[in-house]
Amino acid sequence: MIFQKIGIVGAGTMGHGIAHVSALAGSQVFLYDTGLELAQKGLAKIKGNLDKGVEKGKLSAGERDVALEKIVATAALSDFAGCDLIIEAIPEKMEMKKALFEQLDGINPHAVLATNTSSLSVAAIASAVVDPSRVIGTHFFNPVHIMALLELVVHAETAPKVLDSVLAWGTEIGKECIVVHDAPGFATSRLGVCLGMEAIRMLEQGVASAEDIDKAMVLGYRHPVGPLRLTDMVGLDVRMNIGSYLAKTLNNPAFEPPALMRQKVAEGHLGQKSGQGFYKW
Q: Of 117, 149, 181, at which residue does a domain stop?
């Protein structure tokens, strides 16, 4: 394995998914959250997804069991002291990420540090550590254990050896990697969020129903899922924050969250995770 020990900060949707694929590939994984109960909850979700994989014949019961044995749920960042790679998967808030990276820098001054941000500046996050050359963006997609893409984001100071090692690791965990330079929204969020915001505006203006807008992209452009359903799956609040950031950073109103989106977020209709967004789940 390129990385023998991996630490993951955040046991939520993205964090537990990254832990899943890392352990299945053979790494020892420390899955951290702010409370042990939260970390164990993430571990339970991994077990559920691995069980489904066994049921569908995608892996054996033995492979599942070995993977689960490799994951340790923890509420102590000090467990990351011996890790080769540390990945943060916490909320998209710059100050939170920088504070975390500063803390991680003190705990482990040698590991590759990766951020799962989908839009924020990797260089800005990297500025929180003494050696920014060891920082890279690893943007995964939900659900991590199913989606094939891994978007690697390099900033001006990312060391070539760091990129090479993470590219090799991406292959080990079964991902197709693309390399993108540090720019607002990278490649995926910049294109995907722009499409999603326009779809919401179309719904807001009564152009068509959510179902038909999505069907247009699925059947007409062969997208695996329509932009409104995808927004539900990602979370309306998450996409609204990304859109607001991109609209301001790129000075482009195409990314500005429509009033309908802001209304739904204010009402708590955040998509799949709340049971209702543009669809009922």
A: 181
The whole-number mean pLDDT for each consecutive block of 10 residues of the chain, a chain of 281 residues, reads 96 96 98 97 97 96 97 98 97 95 97 95 98 98 94 98 98 98 94 97 98 98 96 94 94 97 98 96 96
Q: Between the CA of residue 185 and those of 59, 133, 145, 244, what are the distances in Å?
A: 34, 21, 23, 11
Q: Which pTM was predicted?
A: 0.90
The pLDDT assigned to 174 comes to: 97
pLDDT of amino acid 157: 98
Instruction: Look at residue 16 and tell me if it is in a domain.
Output: yes
The closest of 251, 243, 233 to 201, measured between CA atoms, is 243
What pLDDT is attached to residue 135? 98
The three-state secondary structure class of 275 is coil
Question: In terms of C-beta density within 10 A (0-12 exposed, 13-18 middle, 19 or more buried), how is residue 280 classed?
Answer: exposed
Q: What is the pLDDT of residue 142?
A: 87
Q: Which residues, at least 6 apart from 206, have a Cβ–Cβ distance to it below 8 Å?
A: none
Cβ contact 217:191 at 8 Å: no
Residue whose C-alpha is closest to residue 88's, from 67, 68, 64, 108? 108
Do 223 and 199 contact (CB within 8 A), yes or no? no
- Is residue 280 assigned to a domain? no
Calpha distance 221→215 (Å, rounded)? 9
CATH number at residue 65: 3.40.50.720
CA 171 to each of CA 143, 152, 161, 179: distance values in angstroms, whole numbers, following the listed order: 17, 12, 16, 13
ω into residue 257 within 30 of 0, thus cis?
no
Rounded Cα distance, 106 and 258, in Å: 42
